[in-house]
Amino acid sequence: MRRFTTVVLFALAAGLPGGTALAASTSANISHGRNAYTFQPATYHGQTAGHRHANSAHAIYPAGDKASAHHSRSHHARLTPETRTVTATIAPQPLINMHLAPLVGSRESLVRQNERTEADGLTRIEDEAQLNQLRREKALVPLPVSASLHVNESLPMNRRYTRTWTAKFLTDLARAHYARFRRAVQVNSAVRTVEYQRHLIEVNGNAAPAEGDIASPHLSGASIDIAKKGLSTSEIAWMRGYLYPLQMAGKLDVEEEFYQSCFHITVYKAYAPPATTPKAPARRSATLLAAGVR
What we know:
294 residues, alpha+beta, four-stranded antiparallel sheet, 17% strand
């Protein structure tokens, strides 16, 4: 008895945990990992089962008492709980919580749109005669109307046209939006003429000029307006998220308008560059091969 008491007092003096605790704690400790919650083995006397197993044979039992140490090892081996891992996941956040800032326009944006469309070789369409000529030459193509893309019914038929790369952009946008929301987007405006823009200025004080470095990009035929009216908050957030990377990549410019409630978008040739001429195949015709036979 004296020998056992001496060993316990030695454990207390050495600072080993659990010197005064006699009952084993059966509750598991949970530690937070980087990607999961990992359940650790149960604690006995302030130590894990493995620690107690390592210390008990030498600190609790008298030296040389191998039978007691063997009994302790067998007993605690059966009590060691199985390690389990629980994967923690984060629920996807709805688009309404993304809080994307509106893609507002500016004078600098209008200047850039005019410079870029001019660099793409486009000129301002003066009147209906020039507009109709561009339609006949296929320089302007019809808006790609589909189940996912509608056109405002009030838009005149001869102004439901745009540039080929803008039509390609509309097709891509409408398909992506429809796949996400099962609803169509609507085009409110497309190509305009200088003649019409002058008339528009008289009835709409928010309209861009018909001349100068900040003239309306619609006059080039590369711009379209996507209606915001009828779109949910999530749809508007989705549109911002879809358009912003394209603007950063220099494929287009966006001005989110609130007076007219639309996304004004000018698309550049860089969005859908013309296909390059395929490289001519090497001359390996049967005639040449035959000519090389000796």
